Write a sequence for this structure.
């Protein structure tokens, strides 16, 4: 099933994810004081995701100076806790992303190749820059694990967009 692209410039559907952070839940799409960057990863089964998230964690202080960072997958709480214990990430790690949430963000959705990979549908990688008013400013999605944004370039671009109140692009 094909998923339509999300509408940049439009409010995203308010949604929440269970989180391993102190609040227990993370919400996106609501009015906030700061910008938010949401990174979607495939899950515990993906070694490329771990490399990307380790790089994000190393750069996290620079990111958090500019915006809130949320990382989410369709993994269970147990899998998310196992990854957190193994890698010691400092970002807000969320889990339990539903198929409806994946599709509302325009993500590619995959079925596992075997039970050794994972046992349910999961989202392919994506990154979403969300304005404080809950509208979508930037979208980067991939249909597989090998295509990821350059974190340094993405952060530099987000700083430029925020500092200069740049409009959304790709709206036509």
């Amino acid at each position: 099933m094909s998923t339509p692209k999300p509408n940049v410039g439009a409010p995203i559907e308010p949604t929440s994810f269970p989180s391993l952070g102190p609040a227990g839940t993370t919400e996106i799409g609501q009015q906030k004081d700061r910008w938010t960057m949401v990174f979607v990863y495939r899950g515990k089964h993906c070694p490329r995701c771990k490399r990307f998230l380790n790089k994000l964690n190393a750069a996290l202080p620079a990111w958090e100076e500019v915006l809130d960072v949320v990382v989410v997958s369709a993994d269970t709480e147990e899998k998310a806790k196992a990854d957190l214990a193994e890698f010691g990430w400092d970002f807000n790690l969320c889990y339990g992303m539903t198929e409806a949430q994946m599709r509302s963000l325009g993500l590619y959705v995959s079925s596992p190749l075997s039970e050794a990979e994972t046992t349910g549908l999961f989202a392919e990688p994506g990154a979403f820059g969300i304005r404080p008013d809950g509208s979508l400013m930037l979208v980067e999605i991939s249909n597989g694990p090998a295509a990821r944004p350059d974190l340094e370039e993405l952060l530099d671009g987000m700083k430029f967009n925020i500092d200069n109140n740049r409009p959304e692009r790709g709206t036509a």
The chain has one domain: 15-163. The mean pLDDT is 93. The chain has four helices and nine strands.
